[in-house]
UniProtKB/TrEMBL annotation:
It comes from Pseudomonas schmalbachii. This is GAF domain-containing protein. CDD domains: HDc. The lineage of its organism: Bacteria, Pseudomonadati, Pseudomonadota, Gammaproteobacteria, Pseudomonadales. Keywords: Membrane, Transmembrane, Transmembrane helix. SUPFAM superfamilies: GAF domain-like, HD-domain/PDEase-like. Residues 721-934 form the HD-GYP domain. The keyword Membrane applies.
Amino acid sequence: MKLCRRGISLQPLVAGAIILSMLVLTGALLIQGYRGIQGVLVAAAGESASQLGATINECIRRLIDPAEGTLRLLTHDPISSSKNLPDRLERLPVLVENLRSNPTLSAVYIGYPNGEFLLVRGLRDEELKKRLEAPEKAGYLVQSITIDALGRSHGEWRYYDKDLRLLGAHDKADYRFDPRQRKWYSDAHEHDRTVLTLPYVFYTTREIGLTMARRSVDGGAVIGMDASVHDVGSEMGSLRKTAGTELALVDGRGTVIAYPDLDRQMVQNEDAVRLATLDELGVASLKRLAGLSIPAGKPQWFEEAGREWYGIWVPLADFASEEVRVLIAIPSDELLAGARQVLWHQALWGLAVLLVLLAIGWYFGQRIARPLTTLAEQVSALASFDFARPVGVESRITEVRDLSRVLHSMSRTIHNFQAITLTLSRETRLESMLDGVLSRLVEATGVQGGAVYLLQEEDSRLKLACSVSGEQYPQSMLIEGFAEEQLEKQVAQALARDGHYLAVSLRNRSEELLGVLVLQLQEEGCHGRKPFNRFVEELSGAAAVAIETRQLIEAQQRLLDAIIKLLADAIDAKSPYTGGHCERVPQLADMLLQQVIDAKDGEYGAFGMSDAERYEFQIAAWLHDCGKITSPEHVVDKATKLETLYNRLHEIRTRFEVLWRDAEIAYWRGRIEGGDEATLAARRDARHKALLNDYDFVARANIGGEFMSDEDVERLRRIGEQRWWRHFDNRVGISYEETERLQSVPVPELPALEYLLADKPEHRVSWGERKPPVDKHDPRNIWGFDMRLPPCASNFGELYNLSVRRGTLNEEERFKINEHIVQTLMMLTTLPFPKHLRRVPTIAASHHEKMDGSGYPRRLTRDDMSIPERVMAIADIFEALTAADRPYKAPKTLSESLRILAFMARDQHVDAGLFRLFLTSGVYRVYGAQFLAPNQLDDVDVAELLAMLEPEVVGHRHWGSA
């Protein structure tokens, strides 16, 4: 009670409080530190696993790539087309030189289509020579299989020394081997690429390796190589993170492909040697890890055989045929040994700090008192990362007052540093970033003001980018030298000050000048020159990197925009009939999208887009027809039905000329034979008149301007049944492709009687390997296409084309036109778009879809399409309707185009809500004023068009050709 009445002395109270607080803080820091280090080490183990996978992958590629390069060269060697053994042996030096130059290769061999085989093996060790019964000086073994004229197989082994001198040859009657039955042969023969097997134990050399094979360039043979990866396991051993780390390379069947201990990895079965399975390897930790279901690259704790482990697995990229993984098991005690040592050191340091603070607290306890408690609370807030809270107290004690002022300055500086870091990392616009960083820097350093100048390289001039308080700064400065001292003097002269400023150059990673940071000081010497200058220079380095990064991003974006617009201009320039389409559609689409964004209520009231999403849409709009670069020009520009690369009507006219002349010849032959002149003349004139009428009908049908009725098609057939005599061979002077198409057509004897108009077998061009994957059941179709594929790639049949009911395009050509959207999606999905542009392919490739799911190429419905995709559809159709550069139609007026769109909206082919906005916002009128001819700008009855969208309104529909 007496002690309570007297109170507790400040000195032991402060000292005790400091000790207790430090004990709690130290304990918390120790625990947090240990857990943090533990997490860092475990995360580092995961990163190391990924790096280990990359290292092993690189190791394998380092062994395989030279061999694969050699294999590619051998596919061009004449040995692939040689027909007999002597010719093949003449190429032996080439094969041997490849074995010499690449130590990883153990054998090179060639399999021929007739079953013959040639193999060259290097004899590099004595044990292998004994096993193959080779002479002592033998350096190479050549094994061959040849087929004689009777189809019998002959095997022969030849031994050569290192200088390729023949040491002996032995017939091997029991050496029978058909390369065509081997998987490496069949896989390589079917694919025009290098095929690769998983590692296995070579029967002859007992090494671990793999087989690679590739078809020769002439397709006549398959060249194969055995490449050794025997050293991968030993290299893996050197990559262990700790001494007790277990790691192995395992394929999807559980076979151990690589392990540091080769004796455990290989299993002897009688005379054969094979790779061990994971069970046979006898490593419990790896076996347990293989059975865990954990994501790739993520460490997982587990316990096995009374010991704690961290297990990680990463996939190996270079074996695409099967799942190959790197399994890594790290003992927990070894992995966290460093963390425990750090914990012990921290504990010792914490104890030392406690003792020091005890003495200080005991001495200054009475003087600190309440202001110190307040400051302690404020510092605790700082420790909790609350740097925005004001720091400072009023005290008569000089030390406390100074401490309060310093803590206040520190808090303000840290808060400004946080703001600077946040601005550097988040602000995407260069001007806003510079202004924010400079404002915070001026506040943090306590200077009067500052400015940032950026270099204009074209005229070596510094241009003012931003400034904060202080005096007025000149808008630009002309500089003559980029050295630090020269730069500071030139800035001093331009600012007309002496000693009250600090100029620091902003340089990129290549030490190239980007600009200058200028700080206006309070007075000369008010800041410690060296520490302060060093501090500003270090901070300016971060600002310079941020400036460089943003300038690079802006430059790359400008380059991307220019390339995209260049591609769009190239597509427009490719055909004189579609010029400007790729430029007009983005502008129209952007106009309509802006109206959707500006809508404050209704269906689109909640719709909005960020700057990144708007940019993504603009890119997609510019690329919406990039697939047209693959569309044949003669199809896109096809103005008549018989036009291919030229108008084939001229051929048919020539045939009519032949028939005309035949009529003349018949007349004169009749005269010679004594026939009646009047009768013959009447017959000739009637024939001439019929030919003129028939040709006129065919020529008008070729235009494709009117609908072809059944009667018209029947008349074409009757006209085409007329015959004419061909006296010349139609198989000479033609291309290889035409010759191939004529292979299946019997050769008639000349002169041959042919139809005037015909659909011949050679007119139909099959798809072959060019068949596009648009059928929804096609296994190659990974894009979700759902389109009907015409039976053939092209059909040049004359009756077939002349019988096209409307327009000039047949089914195959219309598919080629529509295929551009398929190519657009396929091309764009191959591009590595950044995350904020990932939707570019789908936006660009959906403008031919319809709201009811009847469009193409994926038959999407309205619910499957985003608003930007539906906007693109309306923009593309309206531009096509009003365009004046189409060969197959006249440009339509505003009212005609909008009426067609109204019917399409009513039938759920385009979005009715967006079409309403298109009408009510007047976008069509703004677009028309910019891009349409004056005679197209007629009056539009918006109310009537809106009424047409109602279900009960029925009218004649004529959509025209868009």
